Amino acid sequence: MKIIEVSDYKQMSVKASQHVIAKIRNSDCLTLGLATGGTPKGLYGELIEDHHVNGTSYKCVNTFNLDEYIGLSKEDPNSYYQYMCSNLFSHIDIPLSQTHIPSGMADDAAEECRRYENMIEDAGGIDLQILGIGENGHIGFNEPGTSFQSATHIVDLTESTREANARYFESLDEVPRQAITMGISSIMKSREILLLVSGESKREAMQKLMENDVTENFPASILKKHPKVTIIADSAALDLKRLGQK
Ligand SMILES: N[C@@H]1[C@@H](O)[C@H](O)[C@@H](COP(=O)(O)O)O[C@@H]1O
């Protein structure tokens, strides 16, 4: 894992956007894995600005999002579909038909998981996956204890994850209890991974990621086994002195 330390959230977003833009510009056709949450919002803002200023085009980019809440329709303001439209898709030239997010309203959620996993495979896999990390080490919505072999699947969200995400909802009661998420094996199949980590609330997770063994109790630890992971972390999330790296 290569770690790039940046001063703050803005610099993390700028650095990440440079990485993504270079990748888009250097490929004929790119498949991006996208994340939601507060962390990648700044990255998406930078991509939008670059699209307007420098004209980077997304006409040949395909996207697959990591996850979606079960029970929220595409129209729901808290769905990840809406998040992606308002934070990125509506502001760039990507055809919506090339963007993919699991459906949280499928009659048969298990079938939707299989369909989604197959779609990623049929598209030739993910070239670059953007990831954030939960305070408990979750990636996508893969909570501690998730099998490293897991493909796209249905998850019961932990109370701590529901509480962490409650800030986007009117109340904790409104936060869905389940989600569809790409599995750990789906994420690990990506050819490259870019993990973004910002803020003091992620410091403990970052420390565990650096120091702990690879264990299903801390899902992000699997990233140590991936051949091409770059972590861009700000100094609030990194405490390099404590980690003995400075
Ligand atoms: N499913 C998402 C994850 O993909 C994200 O990484 C995590 C951290 O969110 P934030 O970036 O807001 O801290 O939150 C959610 O649970």
Automatic annotation (TrEMBL):
UniProt KW keywords: Carbohydrate metabolism, Hydrolase
InterPro entries: Glc/Gal-6P_isomerase, Glucosamine6P_isomerase, Glucosamine6P_isomerase_CS, NagB/RpiA_transferase-like
EC numbers for this chain: 3.5.99.6
Gene3D superfamilies recorded: 3.40.50.1360
Active site feature: D67 (proton acceptor), N136 (for ring-opening step), H138 (proton acceptor), E143 (for ring-opening step)
Catalytic activity: alpha-D-glucosamine 6-phosphate + H2O = beta-D-fructose 6-phosphate + NH4(+)
Pfam families listed in its UniProt record: Glucosamine_iso
Residues annotated as domain Glucosamine/galactosamine-6-phosphate isomerase: 16-227
Keyword Transmembrane attributed: no
Pathway where it operates: Amino-sugar metabolism; N-acetylneuraminate degradation; D-fructose 6-phosphate from N-acetylneuraminate: step 5/5
Biological role stated in the UniProt entry: Catalyzes the reversible isomerization-deamination of glucosamine 6-phosphate (GlcN6P) to form fructose 6-phosphate (Fru6P) and ammonium ion.
PANTHER family reported for this sequence: GLUCOSAMINE-6-PHOSPHATE ISOMERASE
NCBIfam families (UniProt xref): nagB
Family as reported in the entry's similarity comment: Belongs to the glucosamine/galactosamine-6-phosphate isomerase family. NagB subfamily.
Protein name according to UniProt: Glucosamine-6-phosphate deaminase
Organism: Rossellomorea oryzaecorticis
Source species taxonomy: Bacteria, Bacillati, Bacillota, Bacilli, Bacillales
GN (gene name): nagB
